[in-house]
Write a structure and sequence with these properties.
CATH class of the largest domain in chain B: Alpha Beta
Radius of gyration of chain A: 28 Å
Number of strands of chain A: 36
CATH superfamily of the domain at 347-533 in chain A: Dimethylsulfoxide Reductase, domain 2
Distance between the termini of chain B: 41 Å
Largest sheet of chain A: 7 strands, mixed
Structural class of chain B: alpha/beta
Order of helices and strands of chain B: HHHHEHHEHEHEHHEEHEHEHHHHH
Strand order of the largest sheet of chain B: 3-2-1-4
Distance between the termini of chain A: 50 Å
Largest sheet of chain B: 4 strands, parallel
Chains: A alpha/beta (about 950), B alpha/beta (about 425), C alpha+beta (about 170)
Number of strands of chain B: 8
Oligomer: heterotrimer
Largest interface: B-C, 56 and 42 residues
CATH architecture of the domain at 347-533 in chain A: 3-Layer(aba) Sandwich
CATH superfamily of the largest domain in chain B: NADH-ubiquinone oxidoreductase 51kDa subunit
Shape of chain B: globular
Number of domains of chain B: 3
Strand content of chain B: 5-15%
């Protein structure tokens, strides 16, 4: 390892780092702006200057940029000397020439990297007497606020948005000191990852609009380590709370999962926690059909009474914790417990688990996905089902560039140089899907096929890798299969991605077959199968393949075998057609529903219990890579809301169920579950238990500068109540305690003296961009190849559950319904957040132009689907596979549509789209094209 | 003694362009035949031995620059030669002469240069306003394709070269070689960090050489007539001839090809005819708008890279701008600073924000609003911006050169502006 | 969301514009590499590059309008606002400044009634400053359209602008 000298002190540093990274790794405060650990160096801001000396005799030295200087053995630098200090101060003074100094009203205030760096360089006196340049701002949609006057032109926004995330609608405009970062015309930012601009921008140009509208300074936010419930990826988050409201969600760094970035569903999709439709009190349905509010003692008593009397069944939920689901299963008995998927999805998720357990391929985390040098995506629209993985795939195609760079001995952080070298050369990415996907633009080849054809293609690829003559495929698919096989075979780290997104078991099986063939041919192949919800895989692990599905529970209830149903955080109307769910619920005489939000299922309950959201409770979730991760309450639930596990445990105790005797704390449930369910045995290691102390103290949810604790309730009483003690976790609801060096799963916020912004995360990392000092949060439960069986798994294809038609062969006038997953709208909870709802829009049907012509419809017309299943707007998309009709799964009006069902479509005469919100806050300023 | 002036031998007094026939009749394309009769390695050696230095301003040895181009090309991808005809340095008007008067000379030089580095595509990146030159070059290139001097298998040598003209869309920064490459790729003309150098990763990530017009116009002469001949043309240690120019208040502003190392006094007093009547010489920028002032004390220096460098300036483009006694030095520097501030690409902080700040201070001083502390501010700006390495490219350090030397040689003039709260040369500075 | 569905709203490039742009595309490895050439081609035909023109070019080059606008607004000789029939590029760099280009600008302003960046009411001229035109020995200089005028004096303006002089 090279040894360098900084200010007379010799340091051993890591080979391949740049000087800025080395300085930060050594704990030296070297200010910077444009460099970002995930995006490398371009040398634009000139902030991270040091002086380099040629040799010991050189007394003048020359200014070098830390981020652009490789560390070489024997190099001599000065960081603290006058020359370097004065230069860095001059940079900040220059950056501040046109800055509006509007910190008091800026949403970035208090967590602003520009503020921090200004203080760090010691700049105080302003010498510039000229006028400031000003800019007009643009409307960028409901998520992001734009205030260009604050810009310091570090180029991070466009580098992130375009170069890293692949967005095309944000660019640097104009030149010299008129540079403007914005869109050609104002409008909604199109990238699914635009929200990261909020964290990437070192000042307040791009801020979180949902926070701006309900504002609290960072230092006044109480927060706790959490896990996103928006999809199956399990990104680590830091939700912040004040006054009982969830104010915003920030990224929580996890080197193996989300790194520095979230998707917009995750960042902006937690607004449902504050919803006016949130349940706050238990409700009992009276004979007249109206609900009567109860206090929680009363409600618990009612619940226990119903459970004691009834023949119990339970429906769990893939969107809530392992622990709550486990308790429900304990309460009702495993034979009466359905995991809460739709029947088709239950088979698919079980299959996903089985395929991964039985494959010898590596089950990659996201950082490993980024290392893939050839990728095959089968059937899955990753950007819309597991968005953060799509962002990783956009990095994986850059491995070709890194190979070229290695030939020229360029380090990976030399970002601009590598992009200029590689231009548009990318590692191969092949996508076969039912229609276009956002990743197509970086794919070497993409094509649209019906699900069965995707599976056939995958099997042919697997055959080709094994050297077998592939099953007959029509040209040009046969050639394509061979090309894909060759590209995967030529790669060092090939990756196959599929999942439940196109609802096809054969597609997932084919994906596994390709990965298995690659492993058998000696490759370090990877297999990633996406599942829809935050705890889908956990539910498959808990319930197992033999668990009853909704259909079976319904039948048993209809036969009188069951009469009391407990539904856990699950709107069943998203799990089957309205008629089927109505029939299911009507088969039970008592329906007890625990949920946080009012929905059709809670409306059908005889007893509804308000369940705390993820932000008000603790739990373990198992992500699609089989990573068990713990989330912690950010704040205490208001009114009579309780975490579901609290309701369930109390009910079991009230019923004096023996298995509840030993359960006192949340951790006891985790341990009991781990002990009883072999697949979940590892979950106790997801995070330290409540007894963990950090050097003798708890970990504070409130940062050291948390203010106004006495004043917050002064309108009610001037006496400050005692802060509630957290009896369930190692975190405290106070600012007292120690947030340093604890296990990563317990990191509640990032802050370090002098580093008030999110950039302070580097103080918690082993080195910039590296893992946290407290390790990596979460524990992997899947161990590839553990149950490797040689034979290919034959997935059981769930039959379409459409009552109207179960034919498998599309023919004239019939289409196979294929899900078109939408990042904004397909997920239940995030779609209940106002900002996301604004982007989701109403449901639609997507068909290609030939089919549209055959139907006699044009874009914007309406079609009837099946016999009264739905009437939806038509979109014409020529990439939709022939014979398929895409439908925006999860969006309004699509509840009755079942994936892969074969249906008729017919033109809806006189149909008009429903009016919708275009934008809540548009048109408040002059706006228009930038100047 | 009749001077050997290879670059301008086809320049006619009326500056009418020399066509193909006249060009070839006067010995044109002999250098090309000589080059393709040799190996590329031999051509490179001659250019190295000739001690030719880049005429665009930086003066980097041309042969050495070329020697970094990888000659084994296993992938078989393109290599590029680019002629930088983006002449925009304030006070510089030499390349226009070569482009408009003798387009075939540039083309022949480029073919020889491209052959030497085995480039298969050559571009002439010409500034937008040089309409006439662009048209002449396009016509000349078409003739060369017809004659077999360009295109497949040039003169049966097996060597293939395509050449085209790219007309730019403005912006001084495009003259910086890596910014030029960005612009040629259809992007914003931001310069690129080095390494990697364009020789290994340039246009579209491929090996690329960018040379100035005047540099390239020398190549076939050197290859045809040899390194010794070229060395002997210069009067001092620097080789060849040079296009020198003088603008400002002299009797006969103009541009002349003279032996490298011609004394400054000879250029100004003999060729430019001395100062215009009623004007005294106060100083001059020796090589365009981004070089340090020299003063009448320096008139007897030889105009070559080493000598001018030792005197504290740079030979730059070799086109001098005269500061006379009736022109305000503060206004002069302010004009340059406003130019550079406006032409900053906006990529790095010292240039993007530092130059407008410096221009603002100069404007305050020139307008009588200067304050005593402004002199410190300007000195700090020179220190802050003025060194290569402080900024992303050489634009801003170049912009500081006239200012820093003006503060040295004309400090009293700055102070008189401040103490008198007015420009002693009155409002505008120049009249 | 609307951005990607507004193809129908974009007017097509003319056949001749397409021919010229496609000729440039033939020389480069990817279409967006001819962004500047394409902007210049359309500007040559239409005088300037409107938002609509810009979007049409961007579509033809498989790039976003945002990226192309970033390129277009960088270069001072791509006009993103309407200009007059002929653009006056008045050199205001150092040699021309020494020789009195500021006075010349005042003369032009007086004669045509426009300041820098403005277009005459009859739409015949737009006056813009330009970097050193490389004719410093003939300072002050300016271009009107494609034509370079050297050693410009107040008296020669009348001849250059003809009867435009004094109509304002």
């Amino acid at each position: 390892m090279p040894v360098i000298t900084i200010d007379g002190v010799a340091y051993e540093v890591q080979q391949g780092q740049n000087l800025l990274e080395s300085c930060l790794s050594l704990g030296l405060d070297l200010p910077y702006f444009c460099w970002h650990p995930a995006m490398g160096s371009i040398g634009a801001c000139r902030q991270c200057a040091l002086v380099q000396y040629q040799n010991a005799e050189d007394t003048r030295g020359r200014i070098v940029m830390g981020c652009m200087t490789p560390v070489t053995d024997g190099a001599i630098f000065s960081l603290a000397g006058d020359k370097a200090r004065h230069f860095r101060e001059a940079i900040v003074e220059s950056l501040m020439l046109n800055h509006p100094h509007d910190c008091p009203v800026c949403a970035e205030g208090g967590e602003c990297h520009l503020q921090d760096m200004t203080v760090m360089v010691g700049h105080r006196d302003r010498h510039y007497r000229g006028r400031k340049n000003t800019h007009r701002n643009q409307y960028l949609g409901p998520l992001i606020n734009h205030e260009m006057n604050r810009c310091i032109t570090c180029y991070r926004c466009t580098r992130y948005y375009r170069d890293y995330a692949g967005g095309t609608d944000l660019a640097a405009m104009a030149a010299h000191d008129h540079i403007y970062f914005g869109r050609h015309q104002e409008g909604v930012l199109q990238s699914e990852f635009a929200g990261n601009l909020v964290e990437v921008c070192p000042t307040g140009v791009f801020t979180d609009k949902t926070l701006v509208h309900d504002y609290t300074r960072k230092w006044d936010l109480q927060s706790a380590p959490s896990v996103c419930v928006g999809c199956g990826v399990g990104c680590n988050t830091l939700p912040g709370e004040r006054y009982g409201r969830l104010k915003r969600v920030h990224n929580r760094f996890n080197a193996d999962v989300n790194g520095y970035f979230l998707c917009d569903r995750g960042r902006f999709g937690a607004g449902f926690v504050n919803s006016e439709n949130a349940l706050s009190y238990p409700g009992l349905r009276e004979a007249d059909g109206r609900y009567r509010a109860l206090d929680h003692h009363d409600a618990l008593h009612r619940m226990a009474e119903s459970c004691a009397r009834g023949k119990l069944a339970g429906i769990g939920s893939p969107r809530t914790s392992v622990e709550a689901n486990f308790l429900l299963r304990e309460l009702v008995g495993s034979q009466n417990y359905a995991p809460g998927f739709s029947d088709a999805e239950q088979l698919l998720v079980n299959l996903a688990l089985e395929l991964q357990q039985q494959s010898p391929a590596v089950i990659p985390d996201i950082s490993t996905i980024e290392s893939a040098d050839a990728v095959l995506v089968l059937g899955e629209d990753v950007t819309n089902t597991a968005p953060r993985i799509a962002l990783a795939l956009r990095q994986s195609v850059r491995n070709k560039a890194y190979e070229l760079a290695a030939d020229l001995k360029l380090e990976t952080w030399q970002d601009a140089a590598i992009r200029n070298l590689a231009q548009d050369q990318r590692s191969p990415l092949f996508i076969a899907a039912v229609a276009d996907t956002p990743l197509d633009e970086v794919a070497l080849q993409r094509l649209s096929l019906a699900p069965d054809a995707i599976a056939a293609l995958g099997r042919a690829v697997a055959d080709s890798i094994r050297g077998n003559t592939p099953a007959t495929l029509a040209a040009p698919l046969d050639t394509l299969a061979r090309d894909i096989a060759a590209a995967l075979g030529a790669a060092k780290r090939p990756l196959v991605i599929s999942g439940t997104g196109c609802a096809s078991a054969p597609v997932m099986c084919a994906a596994q077959a390709v990965a298995n063939a690659l492993v058998d041919s000696g490759k370090q192949a990877m297999l990633c199968l996406c599942v829809p919800e935050a705890n889908s895989l956990g539910q498959a692990m808990l319930a197992g393949p033999q668990a009853p599905d909704l259909e079976q529970l319904g039948k048993r209830a209809a036969s009188g075998e069951l009469d009391t149903l407990v539904v856990l955080e699950n709107d069943l109307y998203r799990r089957g057609s309205r008629a089927r769910i109505n029939a299911l619920l009507e088969a039970f005489s008592q329906v007890i529903v625990l949920d946080g939000l009012d929905n059709d299922t809670t409306s059908a309950a005889t007893l509804a219990l308000p369940a705390a959201s993820f932000a008000e409770s603790e739990g373990t979730l198992v992500s699609l890579e089989g990573r068990a991760q713990r989330y912690f309450p950010v704040f205490q639930p208001r009114d009579e809301r309780r975490p579901s596990w609290v309701w369930l445990l109390a009910c079991m105790k009230e019923l004096e169920q023996p298995q509840a005797h030993a359960l006192h704390h949340f951790d006891d449930i985790t341990r009991a579950c781990a002990a009883q369910v072999p697949a979940l045995a590892g979950i106790t290691a997801a995070a330290p238990d409540l007894h963990y102390l950090n050097l003798g103290v708890k970990i504070p949810r409130q940062p050291p500068r948390y203010s106004g604790r006495t004043a917050m309730r002064a309108n009610i009483s001037v006496h400050e109540p005692k802060q509630r003690e957290d009896e369930e976790t190692a975190l405290a609801f106070t600012m007292e305690g120690l947030n340093r060096n604890q296990p990563a799963a317990l990191l509640p916020w990032v802050w370090s003296p002098g580093w008030n912004s999110n950039q302070s995360v580097q103080k918690f990392q082993t080195h910039p961009g590296g893992p946290l000092k407290g390790g990596t949060a979460g524990v992997r439960l899947l161990h590839p190849g553990a149950q490797h069986s040689n034979g290919p798994t034959q997935g059981q294809q769930p039959g379409p559950l459409n009552d109207a038609d179960d034919s498998q062969n599309p023919q004239d006038g019939r289409w196979q319904l294929v899900p078109r997953q939408r990042i904004f709208g397909s997920d239940e909870l995030s779609a209940l957040s106002p900002a996301i709802a604004e982007l989701a829009g109403p449901g639609y049907i997507e068909i290609n132009a030939v089919d549209a012509a055959a139907l006699g419809v044009t874009p914007g017309a309406g079609v009837h689907v099946g016999d009264g299943l739905a009437t939806l707007e038509v979109r014409v998309n020529d990439t939709v596979a022939a014979g398929c009709a895409g439908f925006s799964i999860g969006l309004a009006g699509t509840d009755n549509l079942i994936p892969l069902a074969v249906v008729t479509l017919s033109r809806a005469e006189g149909w008009r789209p429903r009016p919708q919100i275009i934008a809540r806050d548009r048109g408040t300023g002059p706006g228009g094209t930038h100047v | 003694m009749s001077l050997d002036l290879p670059l301008t031998r086809n320049v006619r007094p009326d500056r009418a362009p020399t066509g193909f026939d006249a060009y070839e009749a006067n010995g044109g394309y002999r250098g090309l035949r000589a080059a393709i009769g040799m190996s590329p390695a031999d051509c490179l050696q001659i250019v190295k031995d000739s001690n030719l230095r880049g005429r665009g301003g930086a003066g980097f040895p041309t042969g050495m620059k070329w020697s970094f181009v990888p000659m084994d090309n296993p992938g078989g991808g393109h290599k590029y030669l680019i002629c930088n005809a983006d002449e925009m340095e304030p006070g510089t008007f030499k390349d226009r002469l070569l482009l408009e008067c003798d387009p075939h000379q540039l083309i022949e030089g480029m073919i020889c240069a491209a052959y030497t580095i085995q480039a298969d595509v050559a571009y002439i990146f010409i500034r937008a306003e040089y309409h006439k030159a662009a048209r002449l070059l396009r016509e000349a290139i078409a003739v060369c394709y017809d004659k077999g001097y360009l295109g497949r298998d040039i003169l049966g040598s097996g060597y293939t070269l395509d050449m085209q003209v790219h007309s730019s869309a403005g912006r001084y920064i495009c003259g910086e070689e890596t910014a030029l490459i960005s612009s040629l790729e259809g992007k914003r003309a931001n310069p690129r960090a080095k390494p990697p150098f364009p020789q290994v990763s340039g246009l579209w990530g491929r090996p690329t050489i960018v040379n100035n017009v005047e540099t390239l116009c020398n190549i076939h002469h050197i290859i045809e007539r040899g390194a010794d001949w070229f060395q002997a043309l210069g009067l001092t240690e620097d080789a060849g001839t040079k296009l020198y120019g003088v603008s400002g208040r002299v009797k006969n502003p103009g541009c002349w090809e003279l032996p490298m190392g011609t004394p400054i006094r000879e250029i100004i007093e003999k060729h430019a005819g001395g100062m215009a009547d009623g004007y005294q010489l106060r100083g001059f920028l020796p090589g365009g708008g981004s070089t340090d002032f020299l003063t009448p004390d320096h008139l007897d220096l030889a105009m070559d890279y080493g000598t001018i460098g030792k005197a504290g300036s740079r030979m730059g483009t070799g086109t001098m701008i005269i500061l006379d006694d009736k022109t305000c030095p503060v206004g002069f520097v302010k004009n340059l600073m406003e130019f550079f501030a406006r032409e900053s690409c906006g990529f790095c902080t010292p240039c993007r924000d530092g130059l407008p700040w410096s221009a603002q201070v100069l404007d305050d001083i020139e307008s009588g609003r200067g304050q005593a502390e402004d002199m410190d501010t300007l000195a700090r700006q020179v220190e802050f911006i003025g060194a290569i390495g402080n900024t992303h490219c050489a634009l801003a350090p170049g912009a500081m050169e006239p200012l820093q030397s003006a503060l040295k040689y004309f400090r009293e003039d700055f102070e008189r502006h401040i103490s008198g709260s007015a420009c002693p040369w009155c409002d505008g500075g120049a009249h | 969301m609307s951005d990607r569905n507004d193809a129908a709203l974009i007017p097509a490039l003319s056949a001749i514009e397409l021919t010229e742009i496609d000729a440039e595309i033939a020389h480069v490895p990817y279409r967006s590499a001819v962004a500047i050439d394409a902007l210049k081609i359309v500007q040559a035909h239409r005088g300037w590059v409107s938002d609509e023109s810009l979007r049409a070019i961007a579509r033809h080059l498989d790039m976003s309008a945002d990226e192309l606008d970033g390129v277009a607004t960088f270069y001072n000789l791509i006009y993103r606002r309407p200009v007059g029939d002929r653009v006056i590029l008045l050199c205001n760099s150092i040699s021309c400044w020494i020789k009195g280009c500021e006075g010349l600008r005042e003369q032009i302003t007086g004669q045509l009634g426009v300041g820098l960046g403005e277009t005459t009411a009859d739409n015949r001229y737009t006056l813009l400053p330009v970097t050193c035109l490389g004719a410093c020995d003939k300072a002050p200089v300016m271009m009107v359209g494609d034509e370079l005028h050297e050693n410009v004096e107040a008296l020669s303006l009348q001849a250059i602008f003809g009867d435009s002089g004094g109509d304002k």
